[in-house]
Amino acid sequence: MSIQLILIALATLALACILWKRRKLYAAAATMNGPLALPIVGQLYLIFGKKRGDDFLKVFNRYAPHYNSPVGVWLGPMLVVGINNNPDHFQTVLNSPHMLNKTYHYSFFRVGRGLFAAPGL
Predict the structure, then answer these.
(1) Residues 58-82: what's their mean pLDDT?
(2) Is 11 part of a structural domain of the chain?
(3) CA–CA dist 70, 68 (Å, integer)
(4) What is the pLDDT of residue 121?
(5) CA atoms within 13 A on the CB side of 93
(6) pLDDT interval class at 96 (50, 70, 90)
(7) Is the sign of the CA dihedral 104, 105, 110, 112 positive or negative?
């Protein structure tokens, strides 16, 4: 009984530490628009409604007109921020030196090479 209680306490403590370290991310995500996020999976449930031949970006483009920019989308534990029809936001992102390296989402979702998916310098 005491071992189970210790394990539960350790798991609760670990979860509290993770949430505390990510508190700024959660605060920023709370200010963004976006579809309903479910616990653990985020908005991954939207991908299950995709038609054969649709890529990942086409699925989210269906929902883009419903939300103002920037749009926060949770893909599991990762927050992905989308920009929709706001030139000032595009300029800020494209001029940022932190945006040269691409995340693994580009290869995982097979985003081809283009203006916004070009490799970093």
Answers:
(1) 77
(2) no
(3) 6
(4) 47
(5) 16
(6) confident
(7) negative
Residues 60, 77 contacting (CB under 8 angstroms): no
Read off the pTM.
Answer: 0.61
Please, are residues 84 and 71 in contact by the beta-carbon 8 Å criterion?
yes
Instruction: Count other Cβ atoms within 10 Å, centred on residue 88.
Output: 9
Mean pLDDT score, 83-105: 74
Q: Does residue 119 fall inside a structural domain?
A: no
Residue pointed to by tokens 């000032």: 88
Total domain count, the chain: 1
Distance from CA of residue 115 to its chain's centroid? 20
Q: Which amino acid is at 9?
A: A
3-state secondary structure of 4: helix
3-state secondary structure of 75: strand
- Measure the CA–CA gap between 76 and 12, rounded to whole angstroms: 20
Residues spanned by the domain of 60: 32-109
